Amino acid sequence: MAVGTLVLLRHGESVWNAQNLFTGWVDVPLSEKGVKEAERGGQLLRDAGILPDIVHTSLLRRAISTANIALDAADRHWIQVRRDWRLNERHYGALQGKNKKQTLDEFGEEQFMLWRRSYDTPPPQIELGSEFSQDADARYADIEVPRTECLKDVVARFLPYWESAVVPDLRAGRTVLLAAHGNSLRALVKHLDGIDDETIAGLNIPTGIPLRYDLDDELKPTNPGGTYLDPDAAANAIKAVANQGR
Ligand SMILES: O=C(O)[C@@H](CO)OP(=O)(O)O
């Protein structure tokens, strides 16, 4: 049986994206603009004739709301849902809640970009019990909550879910919508497209624009890099993500 279609969707703009704050595992809602982006994402799915059979989301409301709004707009609000912490955004450690511009000014371009985009340099650990730590959050009662993560850590925790929960859906020929986050989707794209540890630093994913991957029997993309359903809007939004903090 042919492998199904995979659609990646980064949540719409959150209120902390709008305020230029490092977010990570802090569970902030969508901004008004983010709600509109999610609606538009669903319209793009509908217009492209992509009909998801199942949606996988993180445990964070910006991804959950985006999936709900987009699927409603696409008239696929009724499909099966699975949620898992392994799809969560990268934990931003002690930077969670900090302003990106102030962090850039305080620590300089090189350190700022190491923390934001290097493959294996995590930000400093968050203090347990502090305002933006998730160590006491009930939804993570069964796991050891990270105190910080680099992209390499996200790859390591995301791939077991990919293999055990998403790949079987694809192998069953289903159209899978995966609603997640900038850095958790970068981890998956790195794996799918075989991007090396340096090159991945330059890859940014825009909010709210579905990215379709067609996969062969070995789950390698037949359209490397995927296909954004609105390529022009994606190109502009990618630049904006890359320039955050400036
Ligand atoms: O703050 C965050 O959690 C992420 C995504 O919004 O930011 P960045 O793009 O800087 O990794």
General description of the model:
This protein has 246 residues and is an alpha/beta fold. The chain has a single domain, classed as Phosphoglycerate mutase-like (Rossmann fold, 3-Layer(aba) Sandwich). Helices cover 39% and strands 10% of the residues. It has a six-stranded mixed sheet. α2 (32-47) crosses α3, α4 (100-107) packs across α5 (109-117) and α6 (151-171) packs across α7 (182-193). Residues 17, 22-24, 89, 92, 116, 182-183, 241, 244 line the site of 2-phosphoglyceric acid. Belongs to the phosphoglycerate mutase family. BPG-dependent PGAM subfamily. The record marks 181 as: Transition state stabilizer. This is 2,3-bisphosphoglycerate-dependent phosphoglycerate mutase.
What's the gist of this structure?
By secondary structure, the chain is an alpha/beta fold.
> How is the largest sheet built, in terms of strand order?
3-2-4-1-5-6
Fraction of residues in helix: 25-40%
Radius of gyration, whole Å: 17 Å
What is the beta-strand fraction? 5-15%
Distance between the termini: 48 Å
Pfam families: His_Phos_1
Site (Transition state stabilizer): 181
InterPro entries: His_Pase_superF_clade-1, His_PPase_superfam, PG/BPGM_mutase_AS, Phosphogly_mut1
Active site: 11, 89
Question: What's the topology here?
Answer:
Elements (H helix, E strand, L loop, with lengths): L4 E6 L4 H4 L13 H16 L6 E4 L3 H13 L6 E4 L16 H8 L1 H9 L33 H21 L4 E5 L1 H12 L17 E4 L12 E2 L2 H12 L4
Helix pairs in contact: 2-3, 4-5, 6-7
The protein binds 2-phosphoglyceric acid.
Protein name: 2,3-bisphosphoglycerate-dependent phosphoglycerate mutase
InterPro entries: His_Pase_superF_clade-1 (IPR013078), His_PPase_superfam (IPR029033), PG/BPGM_mutase_AS (IPR001345), Phosphogly_mut1 (IPR005952)
EC number: 5.4.2.11
